[in-house]
Amino acid sequence: MKDRKLAIIGCGNLGLSILKGLLEGQTMPPAHITTTRRNTESLAHFKAQGVHVTSDNVQAVRDSDVILIAVKPYNIRSILEEIKEALAPSRHILVSAVTGVTIREIQEVVQGTLPIFRVMPNTAADVKESVTCICQENAQPTHVEVVDHLFSRIGTAIHIDEHLMEASTILGACGIAYVMRFIRAMIQGGIQIGFDTKTANAIVNQTVLGAARLLIERKAHPEHEIDKVTTPKGCTIVGLNEMEHNGFSSSLIKGIVASFEKIEKK
Ligand SMILES: NC(=O)c1ccc[n+]([C@@H]2O[C@H](COP(=O)([O-])OP(=O)(O)OC[C@H]3O[C@@H](n4cnc5c(N)ncnc54)[C@H](OP(=O)(O)O)[C@@H]3O)[C@@H](O)[C@H]2O)c1
Prior knowledge:
Elements: E1 6-9, H1 13-24, E2 33-36, H2 44-48, E3 52-54, H3 57-62, E4 66-69, H4 73-83, E5 93-96, H5 103-109, E6 116-120, E7 130-137, H6 141-152, E8 155-159, H7 165-192, H8 197-218, H9 222-229, H10 235-245, H11 248-265
Parallel strand pairs: 1-2, 1-4, 2-3, 4-5, 5-6, 7-8
Antiparallel strand pairs: 6-7
NADP nicotinamide-adenine-dinucleotide phosphate binds next to helix 1 and helix 4.
């Protein structure tokens, strides 16, 4: 990837998270990255670091090899129309992070044999801890290598079938919000039992990080780790059961399913 140039078309929340993760991880020289948006003022800080900043999407495509589109779904079609003449299947790899827009819909505008990827990262790309679900069409192994490399520098890359892309949006991208709400609730509980906000935050953040690392590094099942901390008649099981009586797991699952039903209706 160090030799390839990247354009991020639509450098908003997600594009910025990816940009920051790539710069921090020194994945490529800043001068190999072009970012676009219509109002570029908010990208001045990155321009000062050597990143190309422009509103000219076509020029960004001409100057780059990997084209990452990170605009809202209602903006993608006009952008594809705008850049399609500049896209060369022998050179470019098109990567769309746009929710709900299928590879077939992209191909309807961008015809030919262009390698097209759909990716679903999350905003933890900012700290190089995204999970990015990926699927592709017309891609050679070298294209897959390039895209995998890019997204593995900002977290973990997982290949899935395209029909699971919406589900991955819910679990991975919306998942950040669900986990944040869970963390916030734990902090509020911590304050109620005596901690100041700062200390409660520190304890909860590290506890969540530690729990995730236990599962990832030990490849453990959550229930196995729960068993380790639930003494018979102890305070953990009392608390856990109280949470379940109040619908903890059920409300989380229902929320995930409601989000999924909403995305499926779009
Ligand atoms: N945020 C997430 O966690 C997340 C995660 C996974 C996937 N996604 C998907 O990623 C996409 C972007 O989401 P977001 O939250 O980053 O949205 P966002 O903050 O609104 O960013 C989109 C950016 O596109 C720019 N834009 C609009 N029209 C443009 C044009 N013609 N040329 C160049 N830039 C243009 C906008 O800036 P200007 O108005 O200045 O042009 C804006 O900064 C969405 O499809 C979303 O579903 C988001």
